[in-house]
Amino acid sequence: MTGSTPDPADSITFAVEPDTSGFPAVVDAAFRTAVSQSKLGGDSTQRYFDALNQTSDFWGDLASGAITFAPGVDPKGNPVFMASNGNVEMRLAAEFVSDGGKPGDLVGNATVATHNTTLGVSSWTAVAVRIATMPLYLKFTADLFSKLLVPIYRNTARVLTDLASRLQQATRTETPTIDALAESSEVVEQESQVVDNVAAEVGEEGLEYMSIEWGAVALDVAGLAPLMALPMLAEFLGHAMTHALIVQNVTSTDFTWTQTVVHGETAMQPGQNALPGLKHESGADGDLTLSSSASFQTVNYTDYGAIGYVLQLRPADGSPAATLVVSVPWEGDNTVWVGAASDPDQAYRQHNVPTGQLTTKATFGGYTVTLSLNKLSGKTYDSYYYCSTAVIEPA
Amino acid sequence: MLLDEGLAGGSGTASYLQHMLKLASFSTYLSKNGESAFTVSPGPGGGEQATASDGVTTMTVGVILDPPPSGASLASLPADQPPVRGIATVRLALPHPFNVVKIAQFAVSLAELPPDFVLTQQVWQALLKPLLSRFTSFLRNAVDSWLETDVGEDVAGLTDSLDAATSEVADATAEETAEVLVEEEVVAEVAIDLSAAVPALAGLAVLLAIPLLISALAKQFVLHIELNNLTDVDLTWSIPYTDEGAVTVQPASSVLPKMGRATDSWGDETTVPVVFQAIFSSMNTSGYEGIGLILKLSPAGYTGQDTCAVISIPWLADNAVWLGDPGRTPDWAAIYSGHSAPTGATRAFHGNQHFSVTLAIDALSGHNDEYHCVARIQRL
Q: Where are the domain boundaries for CATH 2.60.270.20 in chain B?
């Protein structure tokens, strides 16, 4: 697979660049049901996370090679790559855009999609595929592209598998700290160096080698990382207490977030602080509306320590910012609070007093934030595992 | 006995710990606060007592000395008789709703006094405080060394290890001397003989240290099961019996399709036949329980061709896997208890008229408490 430096005369290099920011969820009926259930708090919130955590085996098995991709065709007969373990389905697809004659030309779009069979929620991301280098004599056609699809899928599948196994290692420590962007950057850097032998597929056209430059989509790969890492972290709880939070943006406004940890430490936060608003995409999968999320996992610093943090969500449209307080004390009930506050430390001091509420909401001009909590105290699956969703919706 | 219940694993250990961890947190308190954990006050019978409390548990240490032989010089006492003798009492109490009171009582004696020492009433009184402070420091050191005891997997040898730790501390404490002050002048340095305390303290060690040491043994078991259907018939799976633990991941559908082309939720179809897998994960529901379950496989369209798999991941013993015919009216509990004992086998095999099933586990013990089972059903 890897080998000596290929001769430019018989090798082609693609460069992929982001089309969709991160790895957003597809807004459909199943998504709306799942998200509105998660807002209720208590068991409803727990079930939402259960369904997500059930995917950990998929990513783990992908990492260990127990699940492999199988070639398939989509309903229109185009080749795709498919993987499934019953709980999670994943597919890689690509479509030809135009005949590229020269380096820099956009030749295709590739999409990665997952489907959680329990929640019915799908996530989707697209990248644009451009030609970086190619032999001068080569005529790039739809036919050539379709012959290169399987090598492209193989390469893409390897990026995903590498990411999964890297995250799996990172989660399996006593005090996991996942830097999604750093892990993703290393994966894309490494995978961009790999040269695939494509003689079997396109040897007749004079092409021997193919490589893909992934560097530009590190952020998008980082967007997929929390989806893999959150359930992995839930499965391997070396810590006494954990709080997982998923912030879902269902408004059309872009947000940025800032997390201030008062007690405990961050095991994982998103690779970037942008939380884009709803996006619309059209392509082979039809017209899609996509909703972005940001995932956080916070653990207590010592076995007898508490978890407490403040998350501020700032809309790009100038509306007031929302402040979220999460408090998981070592003794006593957990608290979630959402409201307006400027100073995060002060907000924490004022609002970490138990209210007994499993869901709370506040409206800030044009939008509403609902913050839920699975449990006020006690254990879930023998762990102090607490989880919340924060759903940002139009008021 | 309490300890037996504690070491039994399962719910016994859990309930034992729930109560006893209160005491364990007291031992952490003692170890953290050192000398200042105790306050000294006059005790009953002319003795002195030291009290330590973390707000829940109270420990009272009292020392009463036998009255001195009046006006006698030590030189006149028989050589084999310790010059000063007394009784030390350690009382450990947990209030309602725990209602635990544990009293350990034992003789203390001064190891030796200077040969020409005159044991006046005043000196006798002055002995109490240094004795008590030697004594509380002995208790604190004993608790510290209990907490540092390395348990490993040898739960049964725990009491012996604790006794050895107590002896060591007793010897070390006996070597240090305490100053006896009369009117702020050092009149003597005394050493305390604590050998009699070691057996008496064993009871306290059980209460104070074992809960913490056992809680360190809490295990988080994870069992992954992968089921592959290599047949040309659909397979219905079920988990009719769970002895311990909970199944946290299981496929949404209870039917595992026959080998063939797969279709996903986007309508894509594989161009090669694939084997369908069902993935399960199970965890123990407390740190002192294992995982035990039965997985039943029923090929569609056949009767009497069911196979059941017993998978047992107990808390202390080795794992076991077994495959067999559940029979027409299965008694799952009986099947489980009959086939969950460790056999040393990591593989099981079962064949009936039409199908053969294999089941394998990656390890029988250890393995960071995470195990993988692979089951495969084929046509004969």
A: 219-379
